[in-house]
Write a structure and sequence with these properties.
By secondary structure, the chain is an alpha+beta fold. The chain is built from 3 helices and 9 strands, in the order ββαβββββββαα.
Length: 191
Amino acid sequence: MTSVTGSSVPTGDSGFVTAARHARPRRRTARLPRARRAVRLLSGLLAVAVALVAVAVMTGVLQVATVTSASMIPALGVGDLVVSRPIAARDAQVGDVVTLIRPDGAQVTHRVTATTCDGADCLITLRGDANALTDPEPYPVREVGILVARVPVLGGLLAAVGRPPARTLLIVALVLAAMASLLPRRARRPQ
């Protein structure tokens, strides 16, 4: 038998292998499950966040809109998803970024430059950050959505998906995929 320095373990055949050789693969495989657990945890947290936002949007606690023009650059870019919270128009302050529905039914997201209220009925004057002038007429509103968050590019991606039913199916698929990452994996049989 040949002499081997260091601690040795049998390999199953006639030779011996040092314990240091066996330790390296174990360390690598120990790191891999940690990375998988981290990815699964982040996926799970993302799934919970998406689900909470989806419920908040469906119940009217939050509103979402896609920026379709460059009028709010640099604060908001074309294709950004704007998340807003509905508030009474009288609570909007000069400088707030709000989303409202114009009398023709179109949405506009601009910065408040002036408000005039008579009870719940308000006239709000807006201006896009990139525009030289305020919007031509004040908007008669009772409620506006005040900017809570902006998600760059996501609004453009959702708009590309198409109509709300397709959008809903995509969101449900993403939530299910993220939740599936939380399910425990079956142990593999040694070969």
